[in-house]
């Protein structure tokens, strides 16, 4: 069941909030405003850091040399409406130092992904096919320190990391170096979080590891979310989703009440964290769970953002045959729909711009990485742009919620008169991706997406002229020229 509430938020902290979920004071709009209602789109389209992903796993290779990711192949995936690739790196040996060739490979792959308009989900492991030995804790910590400059320089092209390193397949099981105790797990996780920029999360394979490492049985609260603490950056990946009653050991018991407790934890914790993974089984154990009815319920409850599009084929075929695959494609992660807006139709230079718009999240999750929100004015004749950075965090637009954003700002006093089209822009905040349209969020509405800029049209314009009515702005927050 969809929960609906309105969260009234000033773009510039100029509105007094009197109720988080059940009521708030809407700012008065200009005397001459236009209300616009927007049509929903049911199209499947790519959006950053969400949806199905394609895995690039280690294969048998000679001299332990990987083939780098190929730009042409990644671009084809992007054209197929995918925005994520999972890259598993098989560390070539367990010596004290990683070879320069391996470090160069990781760096090159991240550059290629960036050029293709994709992001990588990354895991490092010491074994893959058939399992095998992992490395000692000291070796793991040394290798993480070597990877630090690459992760720091290229984090913009990373969606998130798997905790990796420990156990078979880097899945934190059956460690040959006795690393399955909580102390070693904590040391390794905290080191990985320290070498990865604070803007990115690390996903654990087993949810019970998080409660043990942090010695905290409580899910994140709204006040703790996105505060850059280690706990607020530790998400989840389930690599045997729906495989059996306990997802093949993902949950720490086969007792339904214990499983329910762990699912309830994830349901709350994942409001502010990434949840990804894959299915892994379609045999008789999985049959009661993999059907569309249960799969949709579980995807929604655990707030899934990303899932493997190549495995398990039996599960994926079930979703295709039972008719829920297209809904899964649309609803993985966030899916923001513009509901309506109230916008002035004319203003004078230096005038007060007062507007609001409502956005609904139809997806199963929210964005888990930082995201900007801007209002754009663009002159119809000259294409000169002015932008207003809105003090609003789209990561808090929770699934099933309706969010009203109120805006009050000033037009520049020297703004050229004329007609200006209005847009919403949700760009990636990192410098290398800020102006890349493929890294901006597209809204699920008809006729709003402008592919060349990554803007979403509000389907309204404002006439700026000296004779327009309205108040003169006296604050400090103005639209700025590009």
CATH topology of the largest domain: TIM Barrel
Q: Spatial order of the strands in the main sheet?
A: 9-8-7-6-5-4-3-10
* Main pleated-sheet profile: 8 strands, parallel
- Arithmetic mean of pLDDT: 92
- Uncertain spans: 1-31
Give the domain tally: 2
Q: How would you describe the shape?
A: globular
- Using only CA atoms, what is the Rg? 24 Å
Quote the beta fraction.
Answer: 15-25%
Number of helices: 10
Written description of the protein model:
There is one protein chain. 23% of the residues lie in helices and 24% in strands. The two termini are 43 Å apart. The longest helix has 18 residues, at 137-154. Strands 9-8-7-6-5-4-3-10 form an eight-stranded parallel β-sheet. Strands 12, 14, 15, 17, 18, 19 and 20 form a seven-stranded mixed β-sheet that branches. The protein is an alpha/beta fold and 482 residues long. The protein has two domains: 6-44 and 335-481, Immunoglobulin-like; 51-331, Alpha-Beta Barrel (TIM Barrel).
In short:
By secondary structure, the protein is of the alpha/beta class.
What characteristics describe this protein?
single chain, 482 residues, alpha/beta, Immunoglobulin-like, TIM Barrel, 2 domains, eight-stranded parallel β-sheet, seven-stranded mixed β-sheet, disordered N terminus
